[in-house]
Amino acid sequence: MQQFITLTVAGAVQGAVYAAFALALVLIWRSTRIVNFAQGAMAAATTFIALALIEAGQSYWVALLVALVSGFVLGAVIERVVIRPVEGGPELNAVIVTLGLFIAIQALVAIVFGNDERAFPPPFDRVGFTVGETNIALTPNNLYTIGGVLVTLVLLIVLFRYTPVGLAMRASAFGQEVARLLGVRVSRMLTLGWALAAVVGAVAGVLIAGEGSSVTPNFMDALIVYGFVAAVLGGLDSPIGAVVGGVALGLLLGYVRGYLGDEVVNLAALVILIVVLLVRPGGLFSSAQARRA
After folding, report:
1. Closest C-alpha among 94, 101, 50 to residue 71
2. What is the DSSP letter of 219?
3. Which one of 77, 135, 169, 227 is most buried, counting C-beta atoms within 10 A?
4. Whole-prediction pTM value?
5. Contact of 18 with 230, CB cutoff 8 Å
6. So where are the chain's domains?
7. Please, what's the largest Cα pairwise distance for the chain?
8. How far is it, in rounded angstroms, from Cα 210 to Cα 40?
9. How far apart are the C-alpha atoms of 267 and 264, rounded to whole Å?
10. pLDDT at residue 79 is higher than 50
């Protein structure tokens, strides 16, 4: 029973980490209808900026704020300079460009910051709570990570459901010509979508690094896969689905890791993805069914 509780707590925390990255993928999809495979490399870049500031003597909170601002600027510049020229062509073009960006940004991070593994200091303690004589695998930093994901989720829901900007972003993503006829400045909305998605990615990168990951230029690579599976599991159109999908995936993979071993975790993630795509292609929280001919 103790093992099950430990695996459940650890899986829920790991699921919150997956959810943080899945939220960034959901935001870029809802605002531009593009799956950004460079999201992990962009998050790694902003995380290294935060780490450089912390190592220079700045506080964690100053470094986090600078990382968020850096993410906003990076996302806006990438959309304007790299993505904008291919937006009018086939949708696959933009996806291929994001794959190229993934390689280029990761290489640039390695050139600027080096390839050595570095530890990212957490803002809170990583020692588990003790209840009576039982040590629980839940730390103050875990609570901070979970809280950060929930706050991000609430902000995204408010943005897309209750603000004119969020509605304009969704309209621009679904039908640019119609949105223009309604007076929406589509180009600005697309740029804003990339910028905000990069901000959420920066949040994810800093939260993930603070959970004890060794920070290297490619430290987000595995999380790209798990975050994508979480986003598909919950539904690429649903921020709530991203969080639920991330937690569910974290729990399932935690049980697999604890009872079957690490060597089958990646296989389990693949099986979960295939099952979801076969049973409910739009995700568990999809709001519309696909049309059939």
Report:
1. 50
2. T
3. 227
4. 0.85
5. yes
6. 19-233
7. 66
8. 16
9. 5
10. yes
Encode 67-83: b = buried (16+ Cβ within 10 Å), e = exposed: bbebbbebbbebbeebb
Are the beta carbons of 169 and 193 closer than 8 angstroms?
A: yes
Residue listed under structure tokens 């920066």 = 202
CA pseudo-torsion sign 102, 23, 140, 65? positive
Whole-angstrom Cα distance, residue 204 to residue 226?
A: 13
Determine contact, residues 47/71, Cβ cutoff 8 Å: no
Tell me the torsion sign for CA atoms 241, 287, 38, 53.
negative
Q: β-strand 130-131 against 134-135: which pairing, if any?
A: antiparallel
For the chain, give the mean pLDDT: 85
C-alpha triplet 74, 80, 189: angle, nearest 5°:
95
**What one-character-per-residue DSSP string does 57-71 give?**
T--HHHHHHHHHHHH
Strand ranges for 115-238 from DSSP E: 118-119, 130-131, 134-135, 214-215
Q: Which residues contact 271 (CB under 8 A, 6 or more apart)?
A: none
pLDDT tens-digit series, residues 168-184 = 887 877 777 777 777 88
**Where is pLDDT greater, at 130 or 79?**
79
Lookup: tokens for 162? 């209750």
Contacts of 248 by beta carbon, 8 Å cutoff, 6+ apart: 15, 230, 233, 234
pLDDT tens digits along 97-106: 999 999 999 9
Q: Which residues contact 291 (CB under 8 A, 6 or more apart)?
A: none
Q: Which residues pair with 130 in a beta bridge?
A: 135
> What was the pLDDT predicted at 49?
95
* DSSP assigned state of 185: -
Question: Tell me, what's the pLDDT at 289?
Answer: 46
Per-residue model confidence as pLDDT tens digits over 114-153: 988 898 998 898 787 766 666 677 888 889 998 999 898 8
Residue 120 CA, chain-centre distance (Å), reads 18
